[in-house]
């Protein structure tokens, strides 16, 4: 059964109040009964004392005088209280008719003190106090009875009130609870209404923050902060989509224009070949861009899987170095490698690490119009350090903090029309982070750049054991 919070709160009020009222009335009832018992006992005890005094005063003048005085006393008691007295020889001295209707035998009386009993005499309930007293050398047994009816009536009256008002009180209090919980939950309804009105089109809207410094205010502020994060993520995604579409359009437009121009009139075979070469280059560029976008999308979704194994980084370094040498030579650049002749035991995904190194080396060659490119690797304080240094165009200080952002391309390189997507370094940073490493850059405009990767070295025993066992682990990515 699905109940609203308001209904649940009201039900809770109802149960708690009903239980409290029942407990309260039960305690009152118990206290009332107890105080009635004490009052009735006191009354019968005091009557017993009066009878004792009368016997004491009249006994010297003989038993008939005692009987006379006692019947006068009985006539004076108007509230229905009665008594009986038995003399020293067990003979009844004074016994009103009603006592003859005694249904149960009175209990044995202790040698000292008073005993009490509640019983019926002619259909009326009495509280009887009985005492054995010694007067003038003789033992008298006195029973003083007080009717309990007036007290019972008061108790019945209380119980009747209880029965009438208890349900009423519980219902009234529950209604009050319903109203109160409605008031307490009103801000929640307002939050729900304004949250429902927020969509992708108006993500800049925020929920109204309640004035009271309570949990709802905290909830609203938290939701607003979350909306802020969602807004910036959506803006990021929108920008990313716009940049990606823009960058994809350029090679596609190139393919189209080249094809259209070629078809406009008949051309020589060499011209067709040149056009096809340009089309192929543009197609390769868009394929590379799509592949980079896919890598980042997989990384964002946490779906890109890297397979880590314990290996020597130098192998990957030499492979990347061979590739970079060819690129550098093709552009007439000097290329040198300074790789320490020691093992570089690290946990790595070889193909991802190669991709990272190639991205840096490719950039170094791309952004160096003339000069040299160096690949350096050494061990330092438990880390494997890899540096890619060039003497190229460099990066200005305002661009430096952004070059690892997606689609970011420094202005001066754009203007020189070096082709690129601005995604290479974003992927490079992701790969470094997946290896629990870092990537940093030092650069000065016009004086070249230095990219540095730091990777954690495995200690040699771990390396030996894991290498001999050929251990591999996989990691899901999330950038
Ligand atoms: P791109 O495809 O544009 O090279 P990257 O993400 O690889 O994208 O690089 C981002 C930007 O960083 C480049 O556009 C360029 O401005 C700058 N950059 C990267 N490497 C170098 C470098 N070695 N020298 C100068 N600028 C560089």
Q: Can you offer a commentary on this structure?
A:
- A hairpin with a 2-residue loop joins β9 (about 370-380) and β10.
- A five-stranded antiparallel β-sheet has the order 2-1-5-4-3.
- The radius of gyration is 52 Å and the shape is rod-shaped.
- The model has no long low-confidence stretch (mean pLDDT about 85).
- The protein has helices at about 5-60, 65-75, 95-100, 150-195, 215-265, 270-300, 315-330, 350-365, 410-415, 425-435, 460-470, and strands at about 80-85, 90-95, 115-120, 125-135, 140-145, 305-310, 335-340, 345-350, 370-380, 385-390, 440-445, 450-455, 470-475.
- The chain has eleven helices and 13 strands.
- With about 475 residues, the chain is α+β, with helices and mostly antiparallel strands.
- The structure holds adenosine-5'-diphosphate (ADP).
